[in-house]
What we know:
By secondary structure, the protein is an alpha+beta fold. It contains 13 helices and 14 strands. InterPro entries: Endo/exonu/phosph_ase_sf.
Amino acid sequence: MKFLSKRLSNYTVFSSNLDTSKQILSSGGVSLFIENSLASHVQDFKSHSSRLLSVDLYFKGNVKLRIFVIYIPPPAESVLRTDTIDLLIQQLILTKQAGFYHAVCGDFNMHLDKYYPIYFNQPQIASKHIHRLLFHLLSHGYEDFTPINLSDSLGTFQRNDHITRVDYVWSCPLLKGFALTACIFNAQDICTSDHNPVITYYDMSLLFASTKLARARQLKRQTRRVFKFDSVTDTQWTEFADKADALCDVSPSTFSSWHINQMCEYLQSRILKSANATLPSSTVGNNYTPKVPKDLEILTQNYRFLNRLMHSIRLLRKYPLTYSAAHEHKWSIHLHRLQNILQLYKKVFTFIPTLPFSLSSCRQDNFKSLLDDLSNISKSLRGFHLLQEKEFQDSSI
Length: 397
């Protein structure tokens, strides 16, 4: 961790205490790296054990975020495994009572894919002591947004020919409303670790008010400028676009030779310069909280809906025997909303698929075609959402 922290100067590292007793196989140790602009919001961190760390961040508006990092020992270390699980459940209960948004991330050494059919179909077994952590998480509304592992070649853990999924990011009921999507990053070709990272994306609106204020103070600004996007006319948008195009005067060959960071900085500076010259704006104090544009709010809601729907379809694909008439009824409702989304953002999609009227027709290929179509829609919406959200964040700096 010292090696990493010295090379990641834009991050602050928080670590648990190591276990120095001689009765265990390893000393443990977990860490959390937080980007420096957010690290200033850290008010407390606690090493509950060598394998469980919590870091508390406080934001304006009484928003409290607690992040747990955990390593649960494998079943071979049964006593230490039991103690770690019991400690985590205890801390989750206390954290919920304290009103924190919270997430739990780390190596659980548990197989959620194998537990799902037990949880859904054998409730009398699902609640047994051996399954108590996964049962606690699912029954209390926590959610892991990582796609159900349908791949035989990509998991979160890989050793020799053994590929499994044991690493998770669990979001509490309060926080999961801000979760957008998640993925497993294949790192096998770029490092020697036997684990692949799990990446979960959250909607930054939870932190908008506080991060804007913190940045303004860091720059010693008493006021800042915000653009009035809801007041922009078609003529102003055209003028803005034309000026931005004119300011981007480097050749495509030169632009394509740059590093991605240089590309982004170049485009951002030209877009902001054009916006400052053409779009309506106002100067506000540091306590001002910009209102999320209605279009972005609707886009965020639609993107969350789509990813929850994909999660449900993945479960059906993984466990086809759980299909029932209830799924058919829900699909008829979801189909109407999906068609509205395709119509609303038709300019975003390169291809608009024909969605089935009935889920039963998708059972022939075990929902593969439907999941592929939904994944393509999600990827397009994700790119559009990231652009819109970044534009909104930059507009009020």
